[in-house]
Amino acid sequence: MGELIGQVETTSLTIRVLGPLEVTASGRVIPLGGPKPRLLLAALALQPNVVVSTDVLVEVLWPESAPRSAAANIRTYVHSLRRRFAEIDPGLGERISSRASGYLLTASPGELDHLAFAALAGQAQEALDRGEAESALKFLDRADALWRGEVLEGLPHDHSWGATVARLAELRLSVQEQRLRARIDLGRCGEAVAELRGLVTEHPLREELWGQLIVALRAAGRTADAIEAYESAERVLREELDAEPGARLRELRATLVPESVLAPRAAEVAPVCQLPLDLPDFTGRDDVIREVVTLMRERAGSGTPAVIVLSGAPGVGKSSVAVRVAHAVRDDFPDGQLHVDLAGTSSSPRAPMGVLAELLRTLGIPDAGLPREPDERSALLRSRLAGRRICIVLDDAGSAAQVRPLLPGAGACAVLVTSRIRLPGLAGAKPVDVDLLPEAEAARLLQGIVGAERVAAEPESAAAILRQCGYLPLAIRVAGAKLTHRTGWTLRLLADRLRDERRRLDELRVGDLAVRASVTLSYDLLPMSAASAFRGLGLLGPVQFPAWAVAAVLGRRDADDVLDVLVDGHLVELVGSDSAGQPRYRLHDLLRVYAVELAESSDAAKTRAGLRRVLEGYLALALEAARRMPLHFFGMYGDDELPRPPMPAHVLPDDPAAWFAAERHTSVAAVSLAAEHGFDDLAWQLASALTPYFDLRGHQDDWHSTHTIALAAARRTGSLRAEAIVQRNLGQYLLYQDEYAGSRVAFAESKALFERVGDVQGVGIALTGLATILRIDGEDDLALDHCHQALELFAAEGDPNGEAVARLGAGAVWMSRGCYAVAKRWFTDALELSAAIGDRHREAHAFKRLGLLFQHQGNLAAAREHVDRAIAIFTELGDDHCVGYANQNLGELCLHSGDFAHAQLLLVNSLSVHRRNGDRRSEAEVSQLLGELHRALSQPERSRDYSERALTIWRELSSPTGEPMTSAAAVTPVDEPPHIVSA
Questions:
Q1: DSSP string of 5-44, one letter each residue
Q2: How many other C-beta atoms are found inside a 10 Å radius of the C-beta of residue 381?
Q3: 300 within 8 A of 306, measured Cβ to Cβ
Q4: 296-328 residues labelled b (16+ CB within 10 A) or e (exposed)
Q5: Could you tell me if 696 and 629 are in contact, meaning their C-beta atoms sit under 8 angstroms apart?
Q6: Cα(319)–Cα(332) distance, rounded to whole angstroms?
Q7: Looking at CB atoms within 10 Å, which of 363, 716, 853, 960 has the fewest?
């Protein structure tokens, strides 16, 4: 069965590393070649979907001394592997791709045996947590069967693989242990004993295996053999480690003693149930409840206490979950269910001394018998709980210190703690986060409160209410209660009232239920610095933000301690890591609205200064990331005459494009945020600094939205240079979108503004853009004149990069005229100049242009050679955008030379790039070429589909003939994609 990789359906691979390296596809083993290609593939397979740097690969392939041609050799090995993969299916060749800093293997988890093994182990653990030993055993058997030997058997292991190989080996042993435990639980003790004998011989120092062997022998009624196994373990541990068996083994040994010598059970006491009402409309939380109930029953069954901390944001429903769980396990804790409100978030949290007295009285200790010292009361509580099965709910804990004296020390009791903050200081406790309700469960909660018919009558308004409540149970209950007591209200009316963020918290209040009051309890507990950070973060809007933003809000170099307080208090949510490996955070929408309220009522100047520092941080990082990009951006992404704000330390990764990818959405939002708050200077600068990345990756929509804002902001600043820079970038965007009239106006405006401020280089850049538009419009003489003017200006300014671009532009005009000899001189001059100054990106454009020229002359071999060289450079630079367009060139050449398999691979990938970039003209061209390809392959239906798609696009673009344009559609050289293959 195929998979969609980059919008192209390809054959699934199977890559096996749990044993000798092996790759299969469509039932066939793919030959991998010699040791070097196999080592390279092994390194990529151990880190799938992650770029492995060329430096790491060099160390793997040549651990002692690498040849000078190491990088070139690696490219050869990659090409060999891609070719072997493509022999099975053309789509497989793209599974190994080049990046600026290394190479990437694209594969789904099911295609790699080590990931499938880890997934099966995880499924088995989930089944065990649910008490489904039979299902778990099936998963574990399947996981164990994936192993065919040692990891990458037969290949020399690089030191960098050590952690991964060790983790897999440890997980394999864990799976074997779980398999045996499951067999024992299912009564298959004979099978388990036989396998355990071999495992303890192989791993004699692993106490867990000895323990399982003793349990299996005991369950089989072989007490004497179990005692002998314990003595063997004791002897081995003493001889090898000079250590005694651990507590678990000693406890097992105690179970082998006849029951007549065991201590008698403590006297029974009358059970007490203090649990509050289990809400009749309680909805969802099945996974959390199942996890907690299973853990409590397992611990009770083993005779050990369970301590579980349910933590979450204010209003998320922690107490309701705890009460639901406590009711669910009443039969498992027949000696009583106790409930205590610790009032941890109130102004007067309860002291452990008073809570201990309350608990001891409930357990039958009179006031006269209560010890006077806290430690003595705590010891007495542990003593009273030791022989009983009691469930205790400690609601609203404020700290670990408040809870710690109230916990049992032994026996089968369970304690459920609810808290708005995480309690990492509570040793031995199981933390369980209570999150927001999923959309479906939130909808069921609203239905349960206001009625299913009412919700069904206005489904869109109901969904809007849930979104505006942020799927927070407390907010949903308040909204539902309002609707229940206002039968004349429609759901749309409430949704409309909640839409205004400034009124939202006012609306979410009914009776003594109020979201604002609930959040205030958590906010009031914050230290001053954390409270200030919380207010400032609210102004960032509904975005994810990095850790350094907290420090910027506070004006500090580092604020990890403050961020930890906010995360532990569930006022800031850790949502994961970005593509650059940095953690990302966000505020829940209602918490953000509350933070904005506080910010507006606090010191406005201080809050505004904090916001500006965050925006300046983004600007500084974007400018530095743009400077570090591996290719020269032909344009202006900043104004060197303006002071550069300080840059947050230790934030930018080695790959600047990775930072742009991680921060793209937040940076785009920051442009709007800067303009909204009157920071026009930051708004246009940040938009301009993002342009090199938008150009590299083809993010046309972001380019347009940010520069629309930036142009207005630049004009408000009154800076002609700022407006000139933004207009030039807008002209480039409009050129990519085939909006030639608008592009011409923008380039002309930019040129005029640069002339007014005396920026010679800026004038040259704008002239070059205008030359491209003039060529497209058929005004070749004027286009050449602009190229010559630009060339003179660049030469005067000492800008060889600009000279190379102008030469490419002039060559393109001569090529469109059919003057190939003249065009070749211009392209060759541009190529030599680019090579001399080390402008690899412009060098690649020159190779590509020469390839097109040779194609026009009918020299397909030379054309293919030059386009191949262009693609190699684009790939090395990580310019996937230009690779996609160059693939279109090469794909057409392969098509015309009869290399259909290679042509299909290149054209399909090119089509994916054009669709992503919104380049409809190029999409039509490639669709037409694919129609020709499938016609040549005698596949008329697919040929017809592509051809009809091309015709539809041409009609939508209002092409007069319905055919692709030729010379006039060729777009160069201002770093733009080639809009037609045969230009």
A1: ETTEEEEPEEEE-SSS-EEEETTEEPP--SHHHHHHHHHH
A2: 23
A3: yes
A4: bbebbeeebbbbbbbbbbbbbbbbbbbbbbbbb
A5: yes
A6: 20
A7: 960
pLDDT in tens, 279-290: 888 888 889 999
Q: How confident is the model at residue 270 (pLDDT cuts 50, 70, 90)?
A: low
Q: Name the residue type at position 605.
A: A
Q: How far apart are the first and last CA of the chain?
A: 39
> Minimal CA–CA distance to 853: which of 813, 885, 891, 884?
813
The torsion region of residue 242 among left (phi > 0), alpha (psi -120 to 50) and beta comes to left
Helices then strands, counting H and E runs in the chain, come out as 42, 17
Q: 944: which 2 tokens?
A: 């017809």
Least confident of 166-170, 506-510, 645-649, 972-976: 972-976
442-499 tens-digit pLDDT: 999 998 888 888 989 888 999 999 998 888 888 888 888 888 888 889 899 989 988 8
Q: 185 and 133 in contact (C-beta within 8 Å)?
A: yes
Burial category of 65 from C-beta neighbours within 10 Å (exposed 0-12, middle 13-18, buried 19 and up): exposed
Please, which residues bridge with residue 156 across strands? none
Q: At what angle do helices 459-468 and 473-484 cross, to 10 degrees?
A: 130
The CA distances from residue 518 to 33, 59, 79, 564, in Å, are 65, 56, 61, 21
Contact between 645 and 616 under an 8 Å Cβ cutoff? The reply is yes
Give the tens place of pLDDT for each residue, 767-787.
999 999 999 888 999 999 999
Q: How does pLDDT run across 529-581, given as a tens digit for each residue?
A: 999 999 999 999 889 899 999 999 999 988 989 999 999 888 898 888 876 67
In this prediction, residue 958 carries a pLDDT of: 59
Q: Which of 46, 63, 53, 49 is nearest to 167 (CA)?
A: 46
Would you say the pTM of this structure is higher than 0.70? no
Neighbour count for residue 627 (Cβ, 10 Å): 13
pLDDT digits (tens, 9 = 90+) for 650-698: 888 888 888 898 899 999 999 999 999 999 999 999 999 999 998 888 7
Distant-in-sequence, close-in-space partners of 867: CB < 8 Å, separation ≥ 6: 847, 848, 851, 852, 886, 889, 890, 893
- pLDDT, residue 808, reads 94
Helix (H) or strand (E) holding 392: strand 391-397
Both tokens of 814, joined, read 């001569």
Q: Which two tokens stand for residue 395?
A: 């609601």
Mean pLDDT of the 818-835 span: 93
Q: From 439, 458, 449, 516, select the one nearest 483 (Cα to Cα).
A: 449
pLDDT tens, residue by residue, 179-227:
877 777 777 777 778 778 877 887 888 888 888 888 878 777 777 788 8
What residues contact 283, with CB distance under 8 A and at least 6 apart? 437, 441, 444, 445, 448
Q: DSSP string covering 594-628, please?
A: HHHHHHHHS-HHHHHHHHHHHHHHHHHHHHHHHHH
Q: What is the DSSP letter of 156?
A: P
Tokens of 529: 């610095």
Contact 594, 538 (CB under 8 A): yes
Of 374, 429, 360, the closest CA to residue 399 belongs to 429
3-state SS class at 171: helix
